Amino acid sequence: MLKLTLTPAALPPLPRLDDRGTRAIVTSAANAVAGEVKANFVRLAASSGSRYYWHGADAGTRVSLTGDPTQAAVTVHQVGVRLHYYGGTVRPTGRPSEVTGKPTKSLLIPFEDSPLRRRRATLAELGYPRDQIRVIKSRSGCPILIAAEARKRKSNITYLGKLVKSATFRPRPDVLPAASAMQAAMLRGAIGQVEHLLSR
After folding, report:
1. CA angle 68, 73, 77 (to 5 degrees)
2. What is the pLDDT of residues 25-35, one digit of tens each?
3. What is the DSSP string of 142-155?
4. Is the distance from CB of 122 to CB of 148 less than 8 angstroms?
5. CA nearest 62: which of 30, 17, 94, 21?
6. Where do the H-state alpha helices sit in 49-112?
């Protein structure tokens, strides 16, 4: 989850407003920022070829109000977005695997030519029977996950990826729009609401 708290302090002097009017302006500003964030997730989905992840981040972006009428929050309810943005190390959760049903002890890093990458699919979506999923050791001793389909003469082996105990992600500032773009969206949304209030 990734959370942005917005306080439109850069706005021009406003007419006298009660808390309701102030909250309407701040909500409009937050909605505009959320729209900018969601559009950026759509761009990331298109550029990466991701089928689900960034679309999930788009769908999971919400605006919420705080107890302070001058503040609102834009929150992205998608697991891993914070890790992508700030960077960090991820380790197995220990939850049951969708494929084997056993506790997860390793992370799977797909190979470049793996069907996991080419089809943008999860291991469960590829539909390999459990008895075909195996772990072998590479020449360097690294565990590798394969799908071995038995045939009459020999097995047809698909190399899926390597298994690691942890993976470190570098920070990705492009997960969110540029600060200048979010600031412009915030001002646009707030000023639009101010104009609406003044026109009544």
Report:
1. 145
2. 999 999 999 99
3. -EEEEEEE--SSS-
4. no
5. 30
6. 53-59, 81-86
